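Lesson 9: reading folded outputs for more than one chain in a single document. The general rule is that every protein is listed as its sequence immediately followed by its structure tokens, and records are never interleaved. Here is the first one.
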Amino acid sequence: MNPDWAYAYCQSVTRQEAANFYYGIRLLHKQRRNALCAIYALARRVDDIGDGSARPDEKQRRLEDERRGLDSLDTAYDDPVLVALADAVHRFPIPVEAFKELIDGVEMDVVGMRYETFGDLLPYCRRVAGAIGRLSLGVFEARDREAASVYADDLGVAFQLTNILRDIREDLENGRVYLPSEDLERFGCDLSAPDDRIHDLIRFEADRASAWFESGLKLLPLLDRQSAACVGAMAGIYRRLLGRIERRPDLVLRGRVSLPTWEKGWVAVRSLAAVAP
């Protein structure tokens, strides 16, 4: 399969399924944009397995198939996502093993993990989102990669904590609860019959996510201009989303909170302007 066609497929998936991230990705030059789309297309496929309606044993089997695919990237000829990723790995120092951490995290969803404390939740966040930050860092130009990797991981945690707040209602309908039990008890909240006390809980969790953003955004000065604009746009959109949730906690109980298209575009333009030479 032609890598150009494979990249085009991954770009289509990313644009459709990861719209918030695509506003940042499109600020990159073609090769880096292609590589990041390959990463997100595979991440989406793994996530979709965990979120799908198949039986748990079937989900586990499909996740194992994805593990095997990662071990044989050089012989992937008919899978557009793996073809694109194989080409990207030859061009950039992408830590492919981090995908296996993502799979580990999705397996936690499949078995129905619950989290007593934030310390219990943190490894999950690092697997399903911090790993994506580290994979993406392989596509960017960066100095002090060791420090950059730590901040990329922290930024991934911030994104995931925001997702958890945004998706409270949807996750509850699917039988999933990510908010730590100790936090629910602290605020006296019952998610099956929420009342006004959940507003204080959501603001508490939003403050925690903000702290992770503060750490993760230390990544920006370590990146080249376009990579910093890309990450800045992604983070900017998510921080505005988090701010909306913090101001109106009741919104997450009605459905998924999102930003209008114009606002996402505005954030992307501001991010590019912020790093202009």
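And here is the second record, again sequence then tokens.
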Amino acid sequence: MARQIEYNAADHIAPETAKDPYLRPAFTLGMRIKRQIWNICWALLYRVSPRPFHAWRSMLLRMFGAQMGPNCHFYPGSRIWAPWNLACEDQVTAGDGAEIYNPAPVRFGSHAILSQDAYLCGATHDADDPAFPLLAYTMHVGPYAWICARACVAPGVNVGEGAVLGLASVATRDLEPWGVYAGSPAVKVKERKRIYASPAEPAASGEPVNRA
């Protein structure tokens, strides 16, 4: 899947904002205010909430525009840069220290997991442009995918259904469905046993799987 640039700061921030382009903000004033309000909410209501209060944290994310399916488990130490750019199907998990940097929309399929300190990076900068503008990409993490502890997903990289990104690995290219990846940059090391399947496909055993 081709990387999709959703946001280019050069299209939103006027050059007159600062003579030195490195001093220009990456986002509009409205976006920065919205972010500060969310940061206050995160610090006062999200971060300090008891670990079992997953429904409470999902509610807070919904209040700021996130689409949260049932039974999502976002732990209090998880960080979401922009809840309004987050869409989760059912039973999505983000462990303590997991961070979703999503200036552009990011979607998680059913039962996708980000383990502790995993980092999904949704933006970078155009190093070939003298103004060094921020570029943000839409991203997708497929159903039953697992981003292991301290692993990183680079901007615009999509993670296929059931794919696994191993401990502290770095994904710089799209991960194929049901592949297991390790290293920096991550390479495919084996196939994962296909326990689950898409609704229209049979499981590896030949029996249909109910993913409801």
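What the second record shows: The radius of gyration is 18 Å.
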